[in-house]
Amino acid sequence: MKRSLAAAIIAMVSGSCAIAAPDTYPSQPITFLVPYAAGGPTDTVARLLAEAMGRRLGGRIIVENVAGAGGTLGSGRVAKAEPNGYTLLLNHIGMATSVTLYPGASYDPVAAFEPIGLIVDVPMTMVGRASLEPNSLAELVSFVRRGEGRATYAHAGPGTASHLCGTMFLAATRMTATAVPYRGTGPAMSDLVGGQVDFMCDQTTNTTTFIRSGHVKAYVTTRAARIPTLPEVPSAPEAGFATLELSIWHGLYAPKGTPPEIRQKLEAALAAALDDPALTARFGELGGIVVAQAERRPAALRAKLAAEIERWRGVLSPAQ
Ligand code: MLT
To answer: CB under 6 Å to ligand 1: residues?
Structure first.
């Protein structure tokens, strides 16, 4: 009797799915856990990828949002999940910054996961509520400076992409403002559109729609050159903020101990999904650039995570 069939029988008899049956995987819906609130940029990446990967795996992939503590609550949930291929984590740069900013987190972002592969790089845009007086980044700087800390900016919690970009902007201009943390920039965008908060730096996977509709004002993008889908928005160097370059990388992770046969199926489905012209085009419409084929592999994500952990440790560690 094949080992996997025996394993499946043991699993059924013991009532546990702890023993994965790689040959029949997936035999139930897979969960992409997004550690930020629904409706934000990470949620958008997850839902687009889930549809494309699900088709290639021949199964359904559902997206679950578990927000809080800058993404570490949801990431910790996946770290402790059964390593059976049915609970995966889709997270971004926050996976690296959490090592420095959340030393008490219940998991180690490197030791607790099996990297599946990198997905997409997404630039950011500094956006303001439509009623904000400034119409350029220079005018926004004057507005914030005059506010002497009273201007409000939204982010998704310490260490998230929106938090990194916002604090980099304030540090580069030596200004202060009042941070308004949210469980993700989906809900933050709702308040920005509603005029409850003044500005935010967020990924184009979330801001593009609202910039085009005129619900928010765009001041700068964090890419070295203008984004083709937002041609009217100056790049960071054009706006005099070359240091404000920031691209948000996204990766897919399985819990440590997930069987190699299952991980190989996931790696193949990820690579094939990212070859899908429709998915590449959709990410492109939202300013994202799907990673090259060589980066859709575990080794590339492992190396990226290690390098980014060191990069942000140097930036975020309190001055010695
Ligand atoms: C972030 O700033 O990291 C994003 O808000 C995360 C998200 O909401 O998708």
So the answer is: 36-37, 40-43, 94, 156, 160-162, 184-186
